[in-house]
Write the C-alpha cells for this entry.
Amino acid sequence: MGINLLKGKKGIIFGALDENSIAWKTALKVKEEGGEFTLTNAPIAMRLGTINQLAKTCNAEIIPADATSEADLTNLFTKSMEVLGGKLDFVLHSIGMSPNIRKGKEYGDMNYEWYLKTLDISALSFHKVLQTSEKLDAMNEWGSVVALSYIAAQRAYPDYTDMAQAKAMLESIARSYGQRYGSLKKVRVNTISQSPTKTTAGIGISGFDAFFDFADLMSPMGNASAEDCANYIAVMFSDYTRMVTMQNLMHDGGFSGSGITYAIVERLSK
Ligand SMILES: NC(=O)c1ccc[n+]([C@@H]2O[C@H](COP(=O)([O-])OP(=O)(O)OC[C@H]3O[C@@H](n4cnc5c(N)ncnc54)[C@H](O)[C@@H]3O)[C@@H](O)[C@H]2O)c1
C-alpha cells in the first residue's frame, strides 16, 4: 500500500525491459505512490520485451527512444510534457549495455568500436538526457534525476570489463551535471550503486552467479533486491531528499563498508 509519497509528480522512466528490470519495479512503485510517468526504451528492446504489459498496468504512455540519439531524446521529453500536461519532477536512467560483454570479449581483447558504444549507451546517454532536459527546460524546480551504477566504478571486477569505465563516467556526470543543474534550477542529480541483481543486464555478465553469491555473503544485510532499489528510488524522487545531490549512493546491504563478514568467516572456516 502506497502513502502517496509522489502524488502530483510527473516523470520519465527509462529501461523497463521485462518484469525483472529495476526500472519495471520502479514504475510499479512510483505508480503505487501516486506518480505519473511515460515509459521509454530503445525501439529494439520494445520488440523483445514486454513493456506494453507494464504500460497497461501503470496507465502510462510508451514513447520509444534510443538514449544515444539526441533527436529521440528531444522527441521523448517534448512528448512526455505534452502527455503529462506539464514539466517533469523526476527521471530514472536505468540503462546499461556493453557489446564487448555480450560477445564475451576479455579485457585484454577489447573491440574499441564496441567499447565506445558501451560508453555511449551506458554513460554518455546520461549526459544527453540531462542536457536535453535542460535545453527544453523540462524539469520543475526541486526535480530529481537518478541513474543506476555499480561498485565496479570504484573496484576491479574481472568480467565487468568496459562497463567499469562506463559506471565511473556515469557517476562523474552525476557530480558535474548535479553541480550545474542544482545552481541553475535546484534539480538534483544522483547515482544509486545497486547490489548485483538478477536481471537481463545482470545475468549477461559471465561469473554473475559467483559475484552475486559473494556479495550476498559480504553484505551484513544480504544483497538489496530490485524491489528494495525501487523503494529507494521512490524516496529519491520524493520531497524528503531535496538537498541530496551530486552523490553516488550505496544501496548494497552494507557490502561497500565491509572488510569481511561473519558469513564469509564461517564459510572459510569450514
Ligand atoms: N543487474 C545488476 O546486477 C545491476 C547492478 C547495479 C547496477 N545495475 C544497473 O541498473 C540499470 C538497469 O539494469 P537492469 O539490471 O534493470 O537490467 P535490464 O536489462 O532490465 O535493463 C537495462 C535496460 O537498458 C536498456 N537499453 C539498452 N540500450 C539502450 C539504448 N540504446 N537506449 C535506451 N535504452 C537502452 C535495455 O533495453 C534495458 O531495458 C543499468 O544501468 C545497470 O547497469 C544493474
